[in-house]
């Protein structure tokens, strides 16, 4: 956990944090192995991470993501895609949304 998120350790259960970290690490792995991905491939990976985070949120209802964490998760997804050469603004625009709405279709947290 990075220092910006260290305060969360006192607010959330260890299993909630661990489950979230596992999902995000899997997302990073999935994105890192893409070679010249199509927009559909990228959106499929975004959908998978969002659905997995939905499941974590549902399992840990008492520790679910609040507004700040939701924003941080969306920024994390955007940052990982950008770091791997994906033009998130262009991808989002091709699908009629802004880069900040790319997770909205599946997000339940």
| Distance linking N and C termini | 20 Å
H and E string: HHHHH
How many structural domains in the coordinates? Answer: 1
Low-confidence stretches: none
Overall average residue pLDDT: 91
- How does the helix and strand content classify structurally? mainly alpha
Outline the structure in words:
The protein is an all-alpha fold and 109 residues long. It has one domain (12-101). The protein is 62% helix and 0% strand. It contains 5 helices and no strands. The chain has helices spanning 8-11, 14-32, 39-59, 67-83, 88-94. Helix 2 runs antiparallel to helix 3. The protein starts with 7 loop residues before the first helix and ends in a 15-residue tail after the last helix. The model has no long low-confidence stretch (mean pLDDT 91).
Short account of what is shown:
The protein is mainly alpha-helical and 109 residues long. The chain is built from five helices and no strands.
List the topology elements.
Layout: H1 8-11, H2 14-32, H3 39-59, H4 67-83, H5 88-94
Helix pairs in contact: 2-3
